[in-house]
Amino acid sequence: MFKKAIVRTPGRSMVSGLTRANLGTPDYQKALEQHRLYILALETCGLEVLVLDADEAYPDSTFIEDTSLLTPHCAIITCPGAPSRAGETAGMRPLLGRFYAMIEEIKKPGTLEGGDVMQVGQHFYIGLSERTNLAGAEQLIAILERYGMTGSTVPVKGFLHLKTGVTCVAEKALLAAGAFISRPEFSEFMILAVATGEERAANCIRINDRILMPAGFPKVRELLTAEGAQIIEVDISEYAKLDGGLTCLSLRF
Ligand code: GLY
């Protein structure tokens, strides 16, 4: 069960955030309103939400998931692979120290972003992407093993992060798009295959007994509903313009 979440308010500088989406420039006022409704959705799932102030120095800092990995046994501060995001982790140690006794850190030459890590119980799938390298993944696996958890790697192609294309929506079920539909690493799972054209909906968040999904993807909604999921739709159109998904906008623990 998750009890808390941490989010960061987007700054006006978000309009200069990294993107390859080709969906236009985010509307800042609309992004703020969508962020408010995102927080409300987290609260509806029973989470207490800590809202951090905007950090204008880092246009992508609202995507706070990439800065840390919060496990049941320790917090791990990441080492973002995007040079413009490297400084986003600076304030994380004192912040996470309010909630965690044990705090670990990924160090260079390792790089790792939280969007590349998918937790399924005590196991963590780590995407090897343009942002997360093998050295970062190996450091993470070593840390996880020290705390009785495990990790393994999955290649990421055609998506920004691992969780851009695959998320865990039930104990043994993954919502998967593109190449993730048939990856051998996921052969033990029931795969809910995202239809072509709705790939952005692969990034959902399972929180306690609910699933948050991005608004505007009827086929994925139907897929999840057929599995009995209790769905909350959240419009994140302004964040999608920066390649951001629902998971990217919070740390949940
Ligand atoms: N705009 C989110 C990222 O590229 O990290």
Walk me through this protein's architecture:
The protein is of the alpha/beta class. The chain has a single domain, classed as L-arginine/glycine Amidinotransferase, Chain A, CATH 3.75.10. 21% of the residues lie in helices and 25% in strands. It has six helices and 15 strands. The model has no long low-confidence stretch (mean pLDDT 98). Bound molecules: glycine (GLY).
Key words describing this protein structure:
6 helices, three-stranded mixed β-sheet, about 250 residues, L-arginine/glycine Amidinotransferase, Chain A, binds glycine
What CATH first level would be assigned?
Alpha Beta
Bound molecules: glycine
Supply Rg: 17 Å
* Mean residue pLDDT: 98
Task: Give a summary of the structure in a few sentences.
The protein is of the alpha/beta class and 253 residues long.
Present the secondary structure layout.
Blueprint: E1 4-8, H1 28-44, E2 48-52, E3 68-70, E4 75-77, H2 92-97, E5 103-105, E6 117-120, E7 123-128, H3 134-146, E8 150-155, H4 162-165, E9 166-170, E10 173-176, E11 190-193, E12 205-207, E13 210-214, H5 218-226, E14 230-234, H6 237-240, E15 251-252
Parallel strand pairs: 1-2, 4-5, 7-8, 10-11, 13-14
Antiparallel strand pairs: 1-15, 3-4, 6-7, 9-10, 12-13
The structure holds glycine.
Residues 17-19, 60, 63, 82, 85, 242-244 line the site of glycine.
